[in-house]
Design brief:
mainly alpha; globular; MetI-like_sf; membrane; MetI-like
């Protein structure tokens, strides 16, 4: 094999240059700048920013709103991730089978994914609006009283969870559908010849072979569970009493409503660190168990 000439090497680096510039400008530099800013105070027109070490992190540990928001995010992730993945798998199996109007069913499941987040929020606002909303209109037929779904701390987070599951399940379904179509039909035929039930075939053959796709979907679901802003901005603005506020929305509020970019940088570092640890843990402990050679 001949060694590439310096001219060809130059061409290769030039082809990589645009992507490298964007990667550094919009990923590495903002991350490093955010980490650095978290060690400084918020400057004003009369007072410049000063190095304060870990004071922002100490303040975060005493911030009751941060802990409430973190708890909200944990509950939100706990419900949205497994339910979205389970629904996506069930929908993929259904539309991959012998079904009339299969294309229509697939399109119907995927349509919520194509809608912009702002449009989704406004659609569901029509459902949740007290008295005139679709849910209250239907419940009034059965004699139930009107409910302020987005104004009640006991129901508002559940309403946001329902919207997320409705929007994300169809997106994850596409990946499972693609994976199902790569499985050999001979596997199912052999299982039937051996007398295996559908549940046994799913549990011992299909689902293990879908584990690489499940890992990929799981990583995406975890990332999505920490980046919700649009729906909260339209529907609740984190209320009532921060009952629906999530970590990224709280960062947005701190940075752009309270104008404390230093503390927002601190919260961002914690968010990025949490996602990094989760991703590393998944690849270290799950990646080796899901691939079959």
């Amino acid at each position: 094999m001949t060694k590439p000439s310096s001219k060809h090497q130059l061409y290769g680096w030039l082809l990589l240059l645009p992507a490298a510039v964007f990667l550094v400008a919009f990923t590495y530099y903002p991350t490093i700048a955010t980490l650095a800013k978290s060690f400084f105070s918020q400057g004003t027109a009369l007072r410049s920013s000063e190095f304060i070490g870990l004071e922002n992190y100490a303040y975060m540990l005493d911030d009751e709103v941060f802990w409430k928001v973190a708890w909200n995010n944990a509950i939100y992730a706990f419900f949205t991730i497994p339910i979205s993945i389970a629904l996506a798998l069930l929908m993929a199996i259904w539309v991959n089978g012998h079904l009339k109007f299969k294309s229509l069913a697939r399109m119907s499941f995927f349509i919520p994914t194509m809608l912009p987040m702002i449009a989704v929020a406004n659609i569901w606002l029509f459902f949740y609006t007290p008295e005139i909303g679709l849910i209250d209109q239907l419940s009034s037929v059965f004699g139930f009283e009107s409910q302020n779904w987005l104004g009640d701390p006991n129901t508002v987070l559940g309403c946001i969870i329902v919207i997320t599951i409705w929007k994300e399940a169809g997106f994850f379904m596409i990946f499972y559908l693609a994976a199902l179509q790569t499985l050999s039909p001979e596997l199912e035929e052999a299982a039937k010849l051996e007398g295996a039930s559908r549940w046994y075939y799913f549990r011992r053959i299909m689902f293990p072979l879908l584990m690489p796709t499940t890992l990929f979907v799981l990583i995406n679901a975890i990332i999505n569970s920490f980046k919700l802003v649009d729906q909260l901005f339209i529907l609740t603005k984190g209320g009532p009493d921060n009952a629906s506020s999530l970590l990224l929305y709280y960062i947005y509020e701190v940075a752009f409503s309270f104008l404390d970019q230093a503390y927002a940088s601190t919260l961002t570092v914690i968010l990025l660190g949490t996602l990094a640890l989760i991703a590393i843990g998944q690849f270290l402990f799950l990646d080796k168990k899901v691939h079959y050679q």
